[in-house]
Write a structure and sequence with these properties.
CATH topology: Aminopeptidase
Strand order of the largest sheet: 1-2-3-4-5-7-6
Structural class: alpha+beta
Shape: globular
CATH architecture: 3-Layer(aba) Sandwich
Helix content: 25-40%
Radius of gyration: 15 Å
Distance between the termini: 25 Å
CATH class: Alpha Beta
Number of helices: 5
Strand content: 15-25%
Low-confidence stretches: none
Largest sheet: 7 strands, mixed
Length: about 190
């Protein structure tokens, strides 16, 4: 299946919200209130579980409007079927707060932190298309390297929200570091 990939802009906010409101977590309702805000929320001042979906929706909307929450939407016949959060790593606050992640040389570094594909379109190449577009967009933005954080032992689509290691390997990513629960993979852009 060949979907159309578009970079998220403030004008596409209604499409992003409609995807998260209705389709993104149809099979995983416990995560339906995320709106891909998790990596931007200040977890030190307030537990994630104490935030409502409406609060996350409003904050994600604000950040998209400011260009601080970035990514790519996959469309099929004008309907969003997938999402990838990808941005300069400096724009994703919780990556800077994570003591396990390397913090050297992140100025020209992009990060891919999330994939959400609607349940009816999984396994059809949408993730690979989003990944290719994210890498190209980050390169066009002047970044030299992109990294991602696939989880070890992910047994479900929900647990694999960082994207599967195999997808990254096929796209030319190489192992950069390994931790107990995940890998860091990187690719030169």
């Amino acid at each position: 299946m060949e979907s159309v990939i578009r970079r998220l802009t403030p004008e596409l906010l209604p499409d992003h919200l409609a995807f998260f409101d209705r389709d993104a977590f149809r099979d995983n309702p416990d995560w339906a209130g995320c709106y891909c805000y998790f990596y931007h929320a200040d977890h030190a001042s307030r537990d994630w579980e104490d935030r409502s979906g409406q609060e996350n929706r409003a904050e994600a909307s604000r950040l998209i409007g400011e260009g601080k929450l970035q990514g790519y939407l996959a469309y099929l016949e004008d309907k969003v079927i997938g999402w990838c959060q990808a941005a300069p790593r400096l724009l994703i606050p919780n990556l800077q707060r994570d003591g396990d992640l390397p913090h050297e040389d992140i100025e020209g570094l992009g990060a891919i932190v999330c994939f959400v594909i609607s349940p009816s379109h999984r396994g059809q190449g949408v993730g690979r298309q989003l990944l290719a577009s994210a890498c190209e967009g980050l390169r066009e933005d002047g970044l030299a390297v992109v990294e991602a954080y696939p989880r070890k032992g992910a047994q479900s689509a929900a647990a694999n929200y960082h994207g599967p290691l195999g997808m990254y390997r096929k796209a030319g990513f190489e192992l950069y570091r390994e931790y107990e629960g995940y890998w860091i993979v990187r690719k030169q852009l």
